[in-house]
Every structure is written in structure tokens, then in C-alpha cells.
Design goal:
By secondary structure, the protein is mostly helical. It folds into two domains: 118 residues, no CATH class; 247 residues, no CATH class. 74% of the residues lie in helices and 0% in strands. The chain contains 13 helices and no strands. Helix 1 crosses helix 3, helix 3 packs parallel to helix 6 and helix 9 crosses helix 10. It is elongated and about 75 Å long.
Length: 412
């Protein structure tokens, strides 16, 4: 039965094109029409503008960020003494500076992946603090107990056990615990696999940053030829494998993101446990490379990296298709013109709009509108998935009011 009132809670039949990709599949019972634009069709114009501000703030996300700051501060009392005790002041300082380079590569990748629907900076900051401080502190706290409990039963010598079992299990658990916290307490911003990869890369980038300080600083503090040893360690960790931790934890983020599409707390915990398995296996495989390191790196690790790149590209394509379809549904309801949908749902259209806006001195307004429209598309996706429908409909109303009320900011 179709609904004559698009604001009502009654469902409508699922159109054939409603699921444009494998990502964001919605059940038929949750589908509903986009709310109609009762003010009439928008002015037909390519450039448009809006404030792009979400009206509600998740109290869970605010608490999560505050809690992350507290745990991060407390974790410094564990992490800093550990680093300084292993590197010395000079080694720590040089290691810190050298670690900024591979960190920059990971954060640049995060920026590229996250450009379509940027995550709130406060949550990215939480993710980085979790990775750089909290997960390190958790790892240092758990490792001795894990070694005593599981080491003898493994039948391995301590060095092999520590590198191929202990480190992968404890480190991936510690990092991914931050992902689970984000999914449980900031689920409005954890929409799917792209968000999972973004948060995972940020956490892993923070973890690798601190770990690199340790390795780079120790290469200086414990070596008779610190310059040469630092160059070797930097090449291995900063040049050949800056994305190793990101790929390990990224698999957990991907699986948690897929679970976020079918939100419930029980499934999230199950997905967390399932997602740890490939992360731990990849981590263990990396740490297990020995004398034939170069051959394994070329034949195994490089293909894994290329596969990760391919997955990210496919995620980006699916995300754009989803944005286009949701905005088309708003266009049918009278909120956008077809030309605007093309502008908003393609990279080329967005670049052209920004160039035009820059020539008019309105680039900031256009950029904000692009963000608002993308937020609107993903808000509709949350509504159609059946997650907190009344709350997300309030966000939808505010965003639609922005789009309609501020379009004249650029075209006038």
C-alpha cells in the first residue's frame, strides 16, 4: 500500500532502483517516500548553497570524546615512561620527528577516503588518541598476563610467540576496541564500511606513530652506528610498510561497517569478534616474515596492499552511487533539480561547482552546501535502514530547511 502523505510513518513499495549498489541495501518494509517540498520546485540553477549543519548532537558521541580525552591523558603516564625508558630523550625526540612522515602518509589516505562524507573532526581526534595512547596503554597492560596464560600452552619459544601470536592478538584487540566504542556510542556517524575504514585507518595511524617512535628511537639509543640503523629501520617501517597497521585494522573496520548497516548491539559485538580474525591473521603473517622477507613482501604483502586499494576504490564508487540515488529521491519530491543532483553526486560536478563558486567569491558557501547535501543523502539512508527513524527525520527536516532557505546565498 502506498502512502499519500510522504511524512507519514506508513511504508511504500520499494522501487527497483532504491538499492543502487551492494552497499546500503535497505529492507522493503522500511522504505518511505522523501518528504515533499510544499514550497514548490527550487530555482533551476547549478550553483547552490546551504549552511550544512546537523541540528542534533549525539550525547553518546560527546561522552565518547570526553572519555577518550580522559583515558588518553591517563594513558600518557604509562606510554611516555615506556617510550623514554627505551629510547632516551634524544632517541625519543628524533623518533617523534621521523614518525611524523609515515603518519602523514596514513592521514593523507584518510583524508582522501573521507572526502565524500567527512566524519566529525572530534571523532577522528578520538580515534587518533585511542590509537596513539589508549591502545598502546592497553597493550602494555595486557601483554604480561597474556604471555603467562598463553605462552607456555603455545609450545613456541618466547620470541616467536611474542611476534607471531602475542603482538597480533593484543595489538589488534586494543586498536579495534576503539572501533567498537565508536560504533556503540557514535553510531549516527558510523554509517557503513567507508566510515569503518576511515576510523580504523586513523586508529592504526596513531598506533603506528607511537610504535615508530619506539623503533626509531631505539635504533638510535641502542646502536653503535645510529645513523645507519635509523635509516634501515625507517626504510622498513616508514617507506615499505607505512600502511601495514592500517590494513590490518582496516579489515576489522570494514566488517564492523558492514554490521552497522544492520544495526543492533548484539550484532556489533559479534562483528567485532569476527573482524578481529583477519586483522590478527594479517598481522601475524607480516610478523612471521623472516629471511625470505623480500620475496614474501613482493609476492604476498604487495598484492594485499593492492587489494586494499581496490576495496577502497569500490567503496568510494558505491558511496557515490548511494548519494546519487538518495538525492534523486529528494529531487522527485521537489527539493533539487536534475542538474543539481548531477553536480552533487559526481566528483566532476563538485569540482565544477567549486570552481564556479570561487570565481564568485562564494567557495566556502558552496563547499558547505556540498557537505550538507551529502549529509542529507546519508541521513535518508539511515531513515530507510530503520535506525532511529524519528530522530533522523528531525535531522532531515533541518537539513532540508537549510537547502531550501539558503539556496539564494549563491545564486542571488
Amino acid at each position: 500500500m502506498t502512502s499519500s502523505n510522504p511524512w507519514s510513518g506508513r511504508n511504500t513499495p520499494l522501487p527497483q532502483q532504491a538499492n543502487p549498489s551492494w552497499m546500503g541495501q535497505i529492507p522493503e518494509q522500511h522504505y518511505r517516500l522523501a518528504p515533499a517540498n510544499l514550497a514548490g520546485p527550487p530555482q533551476a540553477a547549478l550553483p547552490t548553497s546551504a549552511r550544512g549543519a546537523m541540528g542534533r548532537r549525539s550525547t553518546g558521541a560527546v561522552g565518547l570524546v570526553a572519555g577518550g580525552g580522559v583515558f588518553g591523558f591517563l594513558g600518557l603516564f604509562t606510554v611516555l615512561p615506556f617510550l623514554l625508558g627505551n629510547t632516551g630523550i634524544a632517541g625519543f625526540a628524533i623518533g617523534f620527528v621521523a614518525s611524523l612522515l609515515p603518519l602523514g602518509a596514513v592521514l593523507l589516505a584518510v583524508r582522501v577516503i573521507d572526502r565524500w562524507e567527512p566524519e566529525p573532526k572530534r571523532l577522528l581526534l578520538f580515534a587518533f588518541i585511542w590509537g596513539a595512547v589508549v591502545s598502546i596503554s592497553v597493550t602494555l597492560s595486557i601483554e604480561p598476563y597474556f604471555s603467562l596464560a598463553a605462552g607456555p600452552a603455545s609450545g613456541l619459544d618466547y620470541r616467536t610467540f611474542a611476534t607471531t601470536v602475542q603482538a597480533p592478538v593484543i595489538e589488534e584487540f586494543s586498536k579495534s576496541l576503539g572501533l567498537l566504542m565508536l560504533l556503540l556510542f557514535a553510531r549516527r556517524h558510523f554509517d557503513g564500511p567507508v566510515d569503518g575504514v576511515v576510523f580504523a585507518f586513523t586508529i592504526a595511524g596513531g598506533f603506528a606513530f607511537t610504535e615508530n617512535i619506539l623503533y626509531f628511537g631505539r635504533a638510535i639509543a641502542e646502536s653503535s652506528d645510529p645513523g645507519t640503523d635509523l635509516a634501515v629501520v625507517f626504510f622498513l617501517r616508514g617507506v615499505m610498510s607505512p600502511f601495514a597497521h592500517a590494513i590490518f585494522t582496516g579489515t576489522t573496520g570494514l566488517i564492523l561497517g558492514l554490521a552497522a548497516r544492520r544495526w543492533n548491539r548484539g550484532l556489533s559485538v559479534v562483528a567485532f569478534a569476527v573482524g578481529l580474525v583477519p586483522a590478527m591473521l594479517l598481522h601475524s603473517g607480516w610478523n612471521s616474515m623472516g629471511q625470505d622477507f623480500l620475496a614474501q613482501y613482493i609476492l604476498v604483502q604487495v598484492p594485499i596492499f593492492l587489494l586494499a586499494v581496490l576495496v577502497i576504490v569500490l567503496l568510494r564508487v558505491a558511496e557515490r552511487r548511494l548519494t546519487r540515488q538518495r538525492l534523486k529521491e529528494y529531487a522527485v519530491a521537489g527539493w533539487f533539480t536534475p542538474a543539481e543532483v548531477e553536480m552533487l553526486s559526481t566528483a566532476a560536478g563538485r569540482r565544477a561547482a567549486l570552481r564556479w563558486a570561487r570565481s564568485k567569491g562564494r567557495r566556502a558557501e558552496m563547499k558547505a552546501f556540498l557537505h550538507a547535501a551529502t549529509q542529507l543523502a546519508f541521513t535518508r539512508q539511515r531513515i530507510l535502514s530503520g535506525r532511529d527513524v524519528p530522530g533522523h527525520q528531525l535531522d532531515e527536516q533541518r537539513l532540508l530547511a537549510d537547502v531550501a532557505g539558503l539556496r539564494a546565498a549563491v545564486v542571488s
